[in-house]
Amino acid sequence: MTDTEWAHTRPLLPVPGGLRGRGGRPEAYCHRAMLDAIRYLVDNGIKWRAMPADFPPWDRVYAFFRRWRENALVQEFHHRLRAKVREKLGRDAEPTAGVIDSQSIKADAVVGADSRGFDGGKLVNGRKRHVVVDTLGLLLGVIVTSADVGDRAAA
C-alpha cells in the first residue's frame, strides 16, 4: 500500500478498543501491515499458511481478518470507503438506486441438494450469486442462493 493510499485509508479504519479508552491489550501489529498482508493474499490467491515472511505471521493476520469479519468491520470499512468514493465523485454518500444481476453456477455433486436448484433459463443445476451495485458500479451486496431463485425474490 502506497503512502497516499494509506493516507486515504487510515481515517476510514475502526479505532482499536485500547485507543478508545476501553482498555485491553494493545494490538501487536500495525493495521497497515495487516491490510498489506490481506491484500497480498487476495491478489496472489495464496493460502494463509503460504504468507511470505515479509508480513506478520499468517496466524496473526488470519486472526485479525477473522475478528474484523465476525464484528462486521470488513463490511463497515467497505461502506465507509464506498461513501468516500461517491462523495469524491460529487454524489451522495448513500446510493438511492441499485442494479441487481445474477450468475448461475454449476454445483458439484458434493454440494447438498438442499442448497442447489435448477435454473431453467440457463439450464444449470447449482447455485446462483446475486450481486447488487450502485449506478457507479460500486458493490452494495452479494447473496448466494439456489439456482432456482430469481432476481426479484433475491432482492
TrEMBL record:
- All residue ranges annotated as the Transposase IS4-like domain in the record: 94-154
Q: Supply one GO molecular-function term.
A: transposase activity
NCBIfam families, from UniProt?
Answer: transpos_IS5_3 (NF033580)
Q: Which organism is it from?
A: Streptomyces griseomycini
Q: Name one GO biological process term.
A: DNA transposition
Q: Which PANTHER family match?
A: PHP DOMAIN PROTEIN, TRANSPOSASE
> One Pfam match, by short name?
DUF4096
- Residue span(s) of domain Insertion element IS402-like: 1-78
Record protein name field: Transposase
